[in-house]
Design brief:
Elements lengths: L11 H9 L4 E6 L10 E5 L2 H10 L14 E7 L5 E7 L17 H21 L2
Antiparallel strand pairs: 1-2, 2-4, 3-4
């Protein structure tokens, strides 16, 4: 049995990119499951300057955000030991409301494409922060 946590394939590129950045580690994640109403996310530990840079890179005015189909955000909350952890997830109404016949307004294919763009953003920020 491996000590490595299972990472769902749809979110794996973003987790891998985050884990390539020094001092950044993923804690848990979900690729999102449209049929079940579960949206994608990654919770990670990182220095505040990196998390802030990632949040700014996801802003509408950013040079990075043009390839994204959805609006993504970075939020912070406290771990039990008082340290901060960060979550990157969509801040987009299409993940909250359902369309006709109760069908999700987002698809696996759309999110997978965004995850690839998000991984590129993280890689670029990691390079810039070296």
């Amino acid at each position: 049995m491996s000590d490595e946590p299972h990472i769902e394939p749809g979110i794996a590129p973003l987790c891998a990119a985050l884990n390539r950045v020094p001092e950044v580690r993923t804690i848990w994640s979900c690729e999102g499951h449209p049929s079940e109403g579960h949206r994608p996310y990654v919770v990670f530990s990182a220095p505040q300057p990196f998390a802030f840079a990632l949040d700014r890179a996801l802003c509408n005015e950013s040079r990075f955000s043009s390839g994204l189909r959805f609006i993504w955000k970075v939020t912070a909350n406290f771990r039990d030991d008082g340290s901060l952890q960060w979550t990157i997830d969509p801040n987009d109404g299409r993940f909250v409301t359902r369309g006709l016949l109760g069908i999700s307004r987002w698809s696996r294919k759309q999110v997978d494409a965004d995850v690839v763009v998000l991984a590129r953003i993280v890689d670029a920020l990691g390079e810039e922060m070296k």
